[in-house]
Amino acid sequence: MSHNSTPRRDFLRLAGVAAAGVAAGGVLHADSPSTGTFDVKSHGATGDGKTFDTAAINKAIDTAAAAGGGVVVFPAGNYLSYSIHLKSNITLHLEQGATLIAGDPPAPGTPGFDLPEPNTEWDMYQDFGHSHSITA
Fold first, then answer.
1. Half-sphere exposure of 111 (CA within 13 A, CB side)
2. Quick check: 72 and 91 in contact, CB under 8 A?
3. Cα separation of 100 and 91, whole Å?
């Protein structure tokens, strides 16, 4: 019997490691570039629903993108955020009990959500509210 690595065998090995972590009392929550997972908490997110985690979320996305892509993991918690900058080859994975919450608009002159992108090519066909509406 050959001991060569196969995608199925790799999957089963990784699943076993994850199951062992859960059995030991929790989910594994560290960046693992070798498996392509990047935890927002290891980049400074608190998940307490009171602290803005925008910078930590974007940092985790940037780290994953620099590694060629991957899964950005949000462990259980409430992640308060403004604009998130998505990139190619990135998947956001919210674990059970994780919620991504849009922050209230900040006071004028305070950093918050990104400004709407220019839409000059289509402005004559759509009104501003239609192109840039935020619903609750």
1. 5
2. yes
3. 14
Q: Which amino acid appears at position 85 of this protein?
A: H
Q: Residue 18's Cα: distance from chain center in Å?
A: 20
* Per-residue pLDDT tens digits for 2-24: 445 555 555 445 544 444 444 33
SS (H, E, C) the chain: CCCCCCHHHHHHHHHHHHHHHHHCCCCCCCCECCCCEEEHHHHCCCCEEEEECHHHHHHHHHHHHHCCCEEEEECCEEEEECCCCCCCCEEEEECCCEEEEECCCCCCCCCCCCCCCCCCCCCCCCCHHHHCCCCC
- HSE-CB for 58 with a 13 A CA cutoff: 12
Query: Under a CB-based contact definition with an 8 Å cutoff, are residues 47 and 77 in contact?
Result: yes
Checking if the pLDDT of 105 tops 70, the result is yes
